[in-house]
Amino acid sequence: MPQPETASPPQLTLDNPPRLDEILGDVSGRTTSVLCNDKRVLIRLEELYDLFVIFLRRTFSVENLDCYRELISFQSAAGEMTTEERGKRAKLIYDTFISSDAETQVNVDSETRKSMSARILDAENLKSDAFNEVSAAVLNLLTMDSFPKFIKSVEYRQYIEELYKQALKEKDYRETAAYGKEITHRSSSGSGTDQGLSILKILRGSRKSLPEVERLTTQHEVDLLQCKEKCNRILKMLREADADCSEEYTVAMTSVYNGLDMLERLKAGVPDHLLKDLRLAIRDYHMFVDNLQSSGVLASVLNTYRSTYRMKITSYNLNAYRKYQTLNDESEDSNDSPLYSPTSASSIGFWKLYFGTQIELTRLTQLYINWKSFVHSLAEFLNITIRPDIESILKFLLDNSNLDVVNRTVFESFLHFFGPIRTSNGNCVEQVKGMFQCKWFYGYLSKNEAALLLADTWPGTFLCRISKGQTTPGAMEINYTDSKKRFCQFFVSSTMDGVILTDSHGKEKRYTNITEAIRSNGDIFKNSLLTTIPFESWFWGDISLQEAADSLLGQPDKTFLIRTVIESTSFAVTWVVEGRIKNSLIKRDSKGWQLASDENGKSYTDLYSLIVHYRKTLQKPFVSPASLILVSDPKTEKSESKSEQKIELPA
């Protein structure tokens, strides 16, 4: 018996694809179109460019596009540069993309590589056309190989399919808008569709003609959908990174996503320029996070306190949230930010009192607070004076990206470690002050950084650090070396009655405070680690070589920083020489520390002695933005030296 035929889904026919030259120039606000099932679909060039970059990263060929853009930038700016600037810029491009030792080497023939090597040395005669041969070769690779493969890729096809579906939706909206005049009359008597009411509001508020409103309404829907989609992708990447501090970012972006979803469902009329600002902010945020994820370093970046990449994520997060708040405030159907309930009961009263809405203090709608306003309010709430040196520690803990704001989520995390905010015996500021007086407390350190600092120390050497990776509120870790010099750990969690010390086998012991816990286990915690490395301005911690190079780019010669290299269980120094970035491991042997790149160099007992020896090369420390810079208070410094003693532990 013959089987009935099943209808297969229609295959899209794609014709008239875009050209490479359309996305290599200024793509901001520009569009092109392709034929999809004989229907012309509009494409935003900036989105197409973003998709092309993602494809190149996936196929490990993004260096061609990066190189071409650098060469075009050099060509346009060379005429305005001095001879020295032109020479440095050309040398950097050569070392990055053309040299036989370049990490991101492009595929050019050996003759071109040799001629460029000789040409770079003659800085006096370098002109804007110095890289023409390389530029032509790279452009040919992009035009003949990379872009045709991209047009045939799954990413491109899925993207066009989504645009095709949106185009079909737009048709429905245009048909609704065609009834705009009739809806205007019907709406005055309480009837009419939601779409019609939205159109009516735009007509009244903007004085636009009906055809303009048709286009605007459609464009707004598309923009909102794209903002939501990228927002959702950012949230997905942050959550998949499973980083210690991801909640700091996901709370804000969830608020933005939910708000956009509400605006879309209400069909609220929103100002065109504000929606564009938000779309660009979210696009930049998405590109940066996607780049880190594609490179496999997103989780590491989020977990590294001193990472400038993490600080950029914080900045992008704040910018997107503020753009949304501005958009929401100006929209015709403005809605309150989604409710967010703090997990720490001790913070509710303080935040509601000072930063709740004026209408209803039970709605905690403010996620970011100006730094000065926060410090003033905290001092008033606790009835204390916060001195400059204590404020610098608070800023180190609460605003390490130097954005002059406090994120409510970060504040709650802070209270997990140093709270409650106020008790009958003290407050969170006194807790901070007391902890930072302890020589064994090192604040924010990653597990990798702690392991490296404790490597090869005497058995029983220990340190205490904030452990944001633990799910228990108020969690810290005490890391130490055992009798076999292995890296070990105890988890410390705060309770209302004191602290709980938990070993790696899950065995728990209760103590009044963390100091008592350490003193009571003197057979394990024998000697506190004595080093100031984590607080040095030149120490950047667990960052990659790429991030170190990006941070030092453009800095004066002999500027340097020191970072950890977990794979080699060592430190590394990265510095600037004649505009180029140099890097060397710092090896540890039985005698001490030695610069790996100096075959004849001797060993030094500590990093400070090594830096002093190479002071002709390592002259200017590149200060980490997350360094703790204590500001002393001359009025109280002298008196406190007598009245306040550091908490010492038995040897």
TrEMBL record:
A Pfam entry, by short name: RGS
Residue ranges constituting the SH2 domain according to the UniProt record: 440-519, 538-616
Lineage: superkingdom: Eukaryota
Keyword Heme (UniProt): no
Keyword annotations from UniProtKB, A to Z: SH2 domain
Stretches assigned to the RGS domain: 51-160
Name assigned to this protein: Regulator of G-protein signaling 4-like
The species this protein was found in: Planoprotostelium fungivorum
